[in-house]
Amino acid sequence: MQTQNQAAPGDLECVRRFINTWSIPNQTRVETDELPQLCHDAERWRDELSLRPPAASDTLDRLLTLRSDLRKSCEGLDDGSHLLNAWFSRVALSVQVKSVKGVPQIVVMPADDSCSAHLLAAVANALSSGTWSRLKTCGDCRWAFYDNTRNVSKRWCGMTKGGAEGRACGTIAKVSAFRARAAAKKSPVADRG
Predict the structure, then answer these.
(1) Which residues does the UniProt record annotate as the domain Zinc finger CGNR (predicted)?
(2) In the beta sheet, which residues pair with residue 22?
(3) Which of 48, 101, 102, 159 has the CB geometry, 3.0–4.6 Å to 170, for a possible disulfide?
């Protein structure tokens, strides 16, 4: 998968990486789920996700559900933010005032050492700063990426393939649309006789 120009700012990058523990790699086009292996390998967890290790409350089922709900929110499938609100009500978070460049700001902090709380604190802060809406998933491969375009219009993870066997979701979608338009122009119009 491509990673250039996809990283999210600050702690939101940890959320993006966590969401991408489930993916459809462009090379194989087969769904993969790395979360179960990552939960059992603390070093790999830290290297790939940049998160503290899961706490006792971070069961695999809980983390799988959290990832699924965060992904749904990024895909625009959480109407009214019911999924996020449910998580915010059951995870220990606290609100603090921090001085950022001499200006007091409200910051959501995890109230315990659980990975879930750290991820949801990052989501809450991203919602507050307006960056959460820029975390999207590719319509083709469903890879989570941060939309850093000025008009927040990015729809695919990438426009250039990542190697000789790589795919470029945006390019493939545009070529498919072009071919469909070209085929529609070539098709004969039925006689109206």
Answers:
(1) 134-181
(2) 33
(3) 159
